[in-house]
Amino acid sequence: MMNDANVTNDEVQKLYTRLDNEAEASGYHLNPDGEHTRDLVRGLLINEKRYGYWACPCRLASGDKEVDLDIICPCDYRDQDVEEYGACYCGLYVSEDVLEGKQSVEPIPERRPPPEERKRAEQVPPAVSSLSLPVWRCRVCGYLCAREGPPGVCPICKAKKDRFERFI
């Protein structure tokens, strides 16, 4: 995928191990295709050196952190993509079914709105834009998230999707 002399294999392995441990501890899974996953991790490290943050290696970052907040890994679209397609857009994170070989990863459509739509959304007052999605509450720990549907697994307590209720 990406090759950059400024990113060593040791750096890639160290971040890969960290991300894998964090993902598993939070109810997520890294892609079992080690080569693909290490290429993505290398891309995150390259983008960190280039921009100062982990912009998704499969999307074009602007270099402006405020503009790119939605694509900083893990991106705002990860949970919906994993829930709906079995993997996030770049394929770094996968569902349990993909991990166990019960589901294959298919191409995932881009959820990120085009720049002109993102710009319009920035102009909407926060009180209006904050209610554009339903809010879901984990009945186990109280975790709240605003999105189309509840996550497959609570990132705080690891409760399954059925433990969420619509809050707002």
Overall mean pLDDT stands at: 89
What is the 3D form? globular
Query: At the third CATH level, what is the topology name of the largest domain?
Result: Ferredoxin Thioredoxin Reductase
Tell me the CATH superfamily of the largest domain: Ferredoxin thioredoxin reductase catalytic beta subunit
- Low-confidence stretches at least 5 residues in length (pLDDT < 50)? none
The largest sheet is: 3 strands, antiparallel
**Ends: how far apart?**
42 Å
Helix and strand sequence: HEHHHEHHHEEE
Percent range for β-strand residues: 5-15%
**Strand-pairing-aware structural class:** mainly alpha
- Overall number of structural domains: 2
SS element count, helices: 7
Helix content, binned percent:
25-40%
Strand order in space, largest sheet = 4-3-5
In CATH, what is the class of the largest domain? Answer: Alpha Beta
- CATH-derived architecture of the largest domain: Alpha-Beta Complex
CA radius of gyration is 17 Å
Describe the structure.
The chain has helices at 9-25, 34-51, 65-68, 78-85, 96-99, 115-123, 126-129, and strands at residues 29-30, 93-94, 135-138, 144-146, 164-166. The strands form 2 sheets. The protein has a 3-stranded antiparallel β-sheet, with no helix packed on it. Strands 1-2 form a two-stranded antiparallel ribbon. The chain has 7 helices and 5 strands; from the N terminus they run αβαααβαααβββ. The longest helix has 18 residues, at 34-51. The radius of gyration is 17 Å and the shape is globular. Strand 3 and strand 4 form a beta hairpin. It folds into 2 domains: 1-122, Alpha-Beta Complex (Ferredoxin Thioredoxin Reductase); 124-168, Rubrerythrin, domain 2 (Single Sheet). The chain is mostly helical and 168 residues long.
